[in-house]
Amino acid sequence: MENEFMTVTDSNGKELKCKILFTYQSEEFKHNYVVFQIEDTDEITAMRFTENDGNSGTLSPITDDAEWEMLQEVLESYLSKHEEDSCGCGCDSCHHDCSCCEGDDDEECHCHDESCGCSCGE
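Structure (tokenized):
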């Protein structure tokens, strides 16, 4: 589900395009969650997700502080792992698995390989 998008309507009725970072199923709380970033912002948030069918679902707000604490821990783990996998340029696409980054000792990718999808070397 990585790099998929969805539209969320805010409290003012404005539609916001959001990048889905990941989904999470909590056995403790018996809910599914979608964690997303509002496009063109640094704001990351989450909502409960109830699947209606294979292609759609219903989002609902999280009101329980314990659920927020659990999701904060999951998000911190995700972000930590994401930073480790990133090439350091902020492109979110390289992850050091393309041939141009192999063996690159510094944390920055110097990609010139268009198949990588990374434009950080430009």
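The two ends are 28 Å apart (CA to CA). DSSP finds one helix and five strands in the chain.
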